[in-house]
Amino acid sequence: QAQFVESGGGLVQPGESLRLSCTASGFIFGAFAMLWYRQAPGKEREFVARIDPTGRRKNYADSVQGRFIVTRDNAKQMMFLQMNNLKPEDTAVYYCRADKSTTWGQGTQVTVSS
Each residue of 3-26: pLDDT tens digit? Predict the structure, then answer.
């Protein structure tokens, strides 16, 4: 069964950066696209970014385009989310999963506040 462990969250001020990590196991990592989602308090979980199995094709939500960068390391079965110029509206719990997977990790909290 696929498993995901997110890490790297924390409390930062507006304009600062964070790098999130996602460690995956239980499936052939390099065969699947990977996705980042986030859920803010009182809101539904929303799409943030997607990276294809090769790492060449990436898609982003409009709200993070130009600020966030998704990458992956297939040898280590890991995915990353570099978040730059963070804004208070980026505050949320961030989750990763594989495309077509119904399993979620525990998420990592990102709080952007002055």
Answer: 999 999 999 999 999 999 999 999
